[in-house]
Amino acid sequence: MEQCPKCGSPLTESTKFCPECGTPINQDFPPVESNNEEDNIYDEEEIDKPFYKKYLWAIIAAAVVLLMTFTCPDKEAHIEALHNKLMENIEKSSENKQETLFVASLGGGLIDKVLKAKLKVNNYLIFSTAELEDSGTTKTVSFGVLGNVFTFGIDDESLQGLKR
């Protein structure tokens, strides 16, 4: 019994066209092999790979995002980092140790109160920023990621404003 060269359906001897796909039978057609990528949906290499190898980069990216989410610094971490930076700058700019100790003992609590009142922390899930608003202007002063807070924008010019 013959078979259709295109679809492989069984044919009788007197059949001129395949009843399934309509291919003419009396002509010699070579079997059609598809080179079309759409017909070959699955790549043999992809089928053989274990699950974790197929999705390794997605798993790593998800783990990094989760890590960054759970270690994103909060407002208290920004206040602590800014407090430490301000005290460090005050120590550098003061001329004697007594002045530094005086400012540290009296000013430390005041600095924290001002920071708590004026500091706005923007939490963007995987990182956070802190902004200080003073005289109608807003200045970004710290950036937090992976449990660390990096301060910037606190310089000698800012300290001159604090001394006034």
**C-alpha end-to-end distance:** 104 Å
Structural class: alpha+beta
Summarize model confidence as the mean pLDDT: 76
* Global morphology: rod-shaped
Order of helices and strands: EEHHHHHEEEEH
Largest sheet properties: 4 strands, antiparallel
Radius of gyration: 36 Å
Low-confidence stretches: 159-164
Helical coverage, percent range: 40-55%
How many helical elements?
6
Annotation, overall tally of beta strands: 6
Beta-sheet strand percentage? 15-25%
How would you write the strand order of the largest sheet? 3-4-5-6
Provide an overview of this structure:
By secondary structure, the chain is α+β, with helices and mostly antiparallel strands. Helix content is 45%, strand content 18%. It contains six helices and six strands, in the order E-E-H-H-H-H-H-E-E-E-E-H. It has helices at 44-48, 51-54, 56-70, 75-93, 97-118, 156-163, and strands at residues 2-3, 10-11, 119-123, 128-134, 137-145, 148-151. The strands form two sheets. It has a four-stranded antiparallel beta sheet. A two-stranded antiparallel sheet has the order 1-2. A hairpin with a 6-residue loop joins strand 1 (2-3) and strand 2. Helix 4 runs antiparallel to helix 5. It is rod-shaped, with a radius of gyration of 36 Å. The N and C termini lie far apart (104 Å). The model is unreliable at 159-164 (pLDDT under 50).
Short recap of the structure:
With 164 residues, the protein is an alpha+beta fold. It has helices at residues 44-48, 51-54, 56-70, 75-93, 97-118, 156-163; strands at 2-3, 10-11, 119-123, 128-134, 137-145, 148-151.
